[in-house]
Amino acid sequence: MRLNPVQLDSLVAVVEAGSFETAAARLHVTPSAVSQRIRALEASAGQVLVRRGTPCRATPHGERLVQLGRQIRLLHDEARQALGTIGSVELPVVVNADSLGTWFRDVLAEAADWTGTAIVLHVEDEGYSQELLRRGEVLAAVTSDPATVQGCAAEPLGVMRYLVVAAPEFAGRWRGGDGEPDWAAMPMLIFNDKDRLQHGPLRAHGVTSPPPVVHHVPSTSDFYAAIRLGLGWGMVPEPQARADLASGDLVRLSADVADVPLHWQRWRLDSPRLAALTEAVRRAARRHLR
């Protein structure tokens, strides 16, 4: 099967835009032309590649070709930039919120010195970020899953350690007569419904269900601020809490920890920009992760 680059680019445009009409506008052609290209690509592949709907989505076979189309686009963009015909190259990456709020900032600091490179960040839980790789939406991911996505290379980065912390006043208010926290009753914070970190300490202390009050704070910085303000307890990355624990602005409720191994997955692609991003990620992980 010989794949037509123009048809692949149209497939990527439809999936990104969510409709044939919007994709056509981006490609400066008619919706009929886009539809013809997709039908020709599906005929060549012998598979349905796009689920027509609102929005349009790639089928599993289509996702593999979307990934290929984006890989070709990256290589073309790098070549065109070298020839001076475009201004920047996009690097879409998915990172979990806690990494973005801590060690991954070193990567962004390095990227600030890269001319003609646009970092496009997607924020997703580290246990779910691989799905964006599979769909071809990103070219690299910080993930907790060591299983390698087809077409990608994976390597361990280190461990992000989480500590059980609270504001001192909050901790004092919710300690029982034995000096131990009232795990079953004291208010708890979670990031979102995917966040299961706090359930580990609960189980370790014999609590099988969440407390009556569970606050949802879906922002790393606001989650941390809410704990410092005494809204509830939660598990936060060790690098983030280190200074406040030393100053006494936070206290550890217990010695419980959660160690989350992180991995870097990237397309197997001979791209100078992707290689530079990977090296920056490795350096940042060595400085901050266990």
General description of the model:
This protein is an alpha/beta fold and 290 residues long. Among the domains are: 1-76, Winged helix-like DNA-binding domain superfamily/Winged helix DNA-binding domain (Arc Repressor Mutant, subunit A); 161-259, Periplasmic binding protein-like II (D-Maltodextrin-Binding Protein, domain 2), CATH 3.40.190. The chain contains twelve helices and ten strands. The protein has helices at residues 5-17, 20-27, 31-45, 60-82, 97-100, 105-111, 130-134, 168-173, 199-204, 220-228, 238-247, 272-288; strands spanning 50-51, 57-58, 89-95, 117-123, 140-143, 152-166, 188-190, 214-216, 234-237, 251-267. The strands form three sheets. The chain has a six-stranded mixed β-sheet with strand order 4-3-5-10-6-9. Strands 1-2 form a two-stranded antiparallel sheet. The longest helix is centred in the N-terminal third of the chain and has 23 residues, at 60-82. It is elongated, with a radius of gyration of 23 Å. The N and C termini lie far apart (46 Å).
List keywords for this structure.
290 residues; alpha/beta; Arc Repressor Mutant, subunit A; D-Maltodextrin-Binding Protein, domain 2; six-stranded mixed sheet; two-stranded antiparallel sheet; 12 helices
Query: What CATH architecture label of the domain at 161-259 applies?
Result: 3-Layer(aba) Sandwich
The strand count comes to 10
* Helix-strand category: alpha/beta
Silhouette: elongated
Short description:
The chain is of the alpha/beta class. Helices cover about 40% and strands about 20% of the residues. α1 crosses α4.
